[in-house]
Structures are given as structure tokens and as C-alpha cells.
Specification:
This protein has 12 helices and no strands. The chain is mostly helical. It is globular.
Length: 288
């Protein structure tokens, strides 16, 4: 896994840059903020998140991987499944458990205080995929420990999932406009930019949908999928934290520790609601 990391970081950086440029040349939604200040802010928040990951999440993951592998602990070793069935099932369970972890971050008010820093970005592009409060990343170390131990995933399966997880997270946060027919095909399997754009909507029921990370199946299975919102109707962000001053570095870092505002109402007190007339007829059919 050490060898993997040597090429993974520069490869992810190049792919991220390509997605960012493509999203500017072929945008899915028009930007509402100046690009450079947003990128600098997101980079600063992300650096602290990377630091928390390096200091807590990765050491915990490595320790639990070693412990569970040495003892044959977890569901996959207990089932004694042949290759490639065991690793494939472990991969699916890693993604399913991330679906649940994402839902928990929206459902538990304390965790949402931290996850809100990610959603408060007023535009959505590949830089948002790394914009997580370091506190949320630190809490995820506990989730990682339980996830790895319960599933009993091998080191290589975990590493492969991590790479695909990061790649698809960057992809579905990107503002890249794909041909609708192509994206509908991709969305039968993967979370795509239009699908995840709805998850970052200022409309509360839309934000509380589309929790999947790699495979889009989990939202369909749990009936949390919502695809029939046209991208031209979506405003990105959290209404209660949409003031310009809410997206400063200090404001973002201290947001979870301050008295919380009404998340789903604009500063003027009005809730953001969706006119049903603009929606497509089928919630499971991706709209343009």
C-alpha cells in the first residue's frame, strides 16, 4: 500500500485538475462565486482535513487492518468465500457502509454541524470533494475502525476501494456537463455529477437524498433516490449559511462550535422550496 500512495497523490491531483478545467469549459451549472477565492478557501480547509486523516484516520485504518487480518476477524473471513467473491463482497459492503455513514452525518445534529461545512460551499466543483471540516474527518476514524473490523476487509481490497472512492468522489462533485444519455447510462451504476448536484441543493428534501458514494444502487435500494430535479433549477449550498461572510476560513472552522442558525431558511427567513411543476415525472429518471 505504501507503493500505491507514491503514485496515487499526483495521479489524483492531475485528475482533479482535469475535472476542474473541464467543469469550467463545459459547466453543468453556472458559477455564482469568483473561482480563485473559493479554491483558496477550499484548499485551506482541505489541508486541515488531510492533516486529520494522516494523523488519525490512516493510522487507525492500518492498525485495524493488521489486527483483523492477523486474527481472521470479520464477516468476510468468517464466510470463507473464494476469490474473487470475498473481495467483491467486501468492496460492496465498504460502499454500503459509507452510504450509512453519510446518512448518519445528515441525521445526527451534532455530526451535521461539521458536515455542514462541506455543504455550505455556494458552488460545487471538484474542490468541494475535499472540503471537509477536520473534526468530521477525525470522527470518521471511529467509523473506519468499526467498518474495517466488522467487514474483515483485506489490505488490498481496502486500498482498491479507497482509490475508486476518491476518484468517484471527485467525479460526482465536479461541475462537468456530460451528455444526458451518457450520464443516465453511467448513473445506472455510479453516482454522477447531476445526481450529486441534487444532494447539494438548498432544498432540504433534495439535500436529504442521494447519499451514495460510488454505486448509485444504495439510494434506489433504500428509496432515498431523487433524480428528477433539472440542474438549471438547483441552487447550491445551505440557505441559512449563504451569506458571503459565512464562507471565510475562520467562519468555516468555527461553524460547528457556534450557535446554529435555521439551516433551511434564507437570511430573510424564507424557506427554499421546490415548485413541483418543474420536476420530471419519474424521481428515478435523471433530468437534464
Amino acid at each position: 500500500m505504501t507503493l500505491t500512495l507514491k503514485w496515487l497523490v499526483p495521479a489524483l491531483a492531475l485528475i482533479g485538475l482535469a475535472l476542474l478545467v473541464t467543469g469550467r469549459l463545459l459547466p453543468l451549472r453556472p458559477p455564482t462565486r469568483e473561482l480563485l477565492p473559493r479554491l483558496l478557501l477550499n484548499a485551506a480547509i482541505s489541508l486541515l482535513a488531510f492533516g486529520a486523516s494522516a494523523a488519525l484516520v490512516q493510522p487507525v485504518a492500518r492498525a485495524i487492518l493488521g489486527w483483523s487480518t492477523e486474527r481472521g476477524f470479520g464477516l468476510i473471513p468468517a464466510l470463507s468465500l473464494p476469490v474473487p467473491v470475498g473481495p467483491a463482497l467486501a468492496f460492496l459492503l465498504l460502499d454500503l457502509s459509507f452510504y450509512y455513514w453519510h446518512r448518519v452525518n445528515h441525521s445526527i445534529p451534532f455530526l451535521w454541524r461539521f458536515h455542514n461545512v462541506h455543504h455550505a460551499d455556494p458552488d460545487l466543483d471538484v474542490s468541494t470533494s475535499f472540503r471537509f471540516h477536520f473534526g468530521e474527518v477525525a470522527f470518521s476514524a471511529v467509523f473506519r475502525a468499526v467498518q474495517i473490523a466488522v467487514i474483515g476487509v483485506s489490505g488490498w481490497t481496502y486500498a482498491v476501494y479507497e482509490i475508486i472512492f476518491q476518484l468517484n468522489t471527485m467525479f460526482h462533485h465536479s461541475n462537468m456537463r456530460l451528455p444526458i444519455r451518457l450520464e443516465r447510462l453511467l448513473n445506472l451504476v455510479l453516482v454522477t455529477p447531476r445526481m450529486h448536484g441534487i444532494h447539494h441543493s438548498q432544498v432540504k428534501p433534495e439535500t436529504n437524498s442521494n447519499y451514495s458514494v460510488v454505486f448509485s444502487w444504495w439510494d434506489r435500494l433504500h428509496r432515498t433516490v431523487r433524480l428528477n430535479v433539472p440542474q438549471s433549477c438547483i441552487e447550491i449550498g445551505v440557505p441559512g449559511y449563504s451569506r458571503p461572510e459565512d464562507n471565510g476560513f475562520g467562519a468555516a472552522l468555527t461553524l460547528p462550535f457556534r450557535r446554529q442558525r435555521e439551516y433551511w431558511k434564507r437570511p430573510d427567513g424564507k424557506p427554499v422550496e421546490r415548485d413541483a411543476a418543474v420536476l420530471g415525472h419519474d424521481p428515478g429518471q435523471l433530468e437534464e
